[in-house]
Amino acid sequence: EAGVTQSPTHLIKTRGQQVTLRCSPISGHTSVYWYQQALGLGLQFLLWYDEGEERNRGNFPPRFSGRQFPNYSSELNVNALELEDSALYLCASSSRDINTEAFFGQGTRLTVV
Amino acid sequence: GEDVEQSLFLSVREGDSSVINCTYTDSSSTYLYWYKQEPGAGLQLLTYIFSNMDMKQDQRLTVLLNKKDKHLSLRIADTQTGDSAIYFCAEKLDFNKFYFGSGTKLNVKP
């Protein structure tokens, strides 16, 4: 069974540009979570989608947005990129089964120059 | 539920035991997890404990849960250099809500 897949794995953008990151959850998982991890440190919660709806949002400015598609895949969009947006962006998925943990993708490494 | 706290760093010598601690605030947690993140990679589930358990042992790993104090710990026996990583605790609440701690960076010195 395929795990959580994220694309691209790496990208470099210029300050002020816009970027879209993609995440495909494990088959059968309805929830997708996005996290930002800067400088290899802690996870900062960005967004949680379930069944196509935004369920919760972290303390990030509105230029961070996303959506979840009917097939439960998700996009994270970041507008007007700033240097401090450089980070590893991790996506995780889970199901409503109480026994199911969150499964993580390998992340997208974004560098803003 | 949103305040899952961990200390940022832990340094131990190879062969010693490591104890990584975590506190959480939501008593309605169903499961509590420990994840491991190696450099440049995503998080991998290391172990978990159901909220009605006090302890779980899995080879070199021992998880202790104190529900009264909302305290979770991970003990790694005979710590090896390959255990050097960032360790995250997490709690799962109803309806797929997860809260993660900020991670503890474990450094194992030879």
Task: Describe this protein's structure.
The complex is a heterodimer of chains A (113) and B (110). Chain A has 113 residues and is mostly beta strands. Chain A has no helices and 11 strands. Helix content of chain A is 0%, strand content 51%. In chain A, a hairpin with a 2-residue loop joins β5 and β6 (53-57). Chain A starts with a strand and ends with a strand. The mean pLDDT of chain A is 94. At the A-B interface, β4, β5, β9 and β10 of A face β4, β5, β9 and β10 of B.
What ranges of chain B have pLDDT less than 50 throughout 5 or more consecutive residues? none
Distance between the termini of chain B: 37 Å
Number of helices of chain B: 0
The backbone outline of chain B, from C-alpha atoms, is globular
Contiguous runs where pLDDT drops below 50 for at least 5 residues of chain A: none
Q: Counting H and I runs of at least 4 residues, what is the number of helices of chain A?
A: 0
Total DSSP E strands of chain B: 11
The largest β sheet of chain A comes out as: 7 strands, mixed
Mean pLDDT of chain A: 94
Strand content of chain A: over 45%
Binned, the helix content of chain B reads: under 10%
What would the principal axes of the Cα set say about the shape of chain A? globular
Biggest interface, residues from each chain:
A-B, 30 and 27 residues
Helicity level of chain A: under 10%
Characteristics of this structure?
heterodimer, A: 113 residues, mainly beta, 7-stranded mixed sheet, 4-stranded antiparallel sheet, 0% helix, 51% strand, globular, B: 110 residues, 6-stranded mixed sheet, 5-stranded antiparallel sheet, 55% strand
How are the secondary structure elements laid out?
The complex is a heterodimer of chains A (113) and B (110).
Chain A: E1 5-7, E2 10-13, E3 19-24, E4 31-37, E5 43-50, E6 53-57, E7 64-68, E8 74-78, E9 87-94, E10 103-104, E11 108-112
Parallel strand pairs in A: 2-11
Antiparallel strand pairs in A: 1-3, 3-8, 4-5, 4-9, 5-6, 7-8, 9-10, 9-11
Chain B: E1 5-6, E2 9-13, E3 18-23, E4 31-37, E5 43-50, E6 55-58, E7 61-66, E8 71-76, E9 85-92, E10 98-100, E11 104-109
Parallel strand pairs in B: 2-11
Antiparallel strand pairs in B: 1-3, 3-8, 4-5, 4-9, 6-7, 7-8, 9-10, 9-11
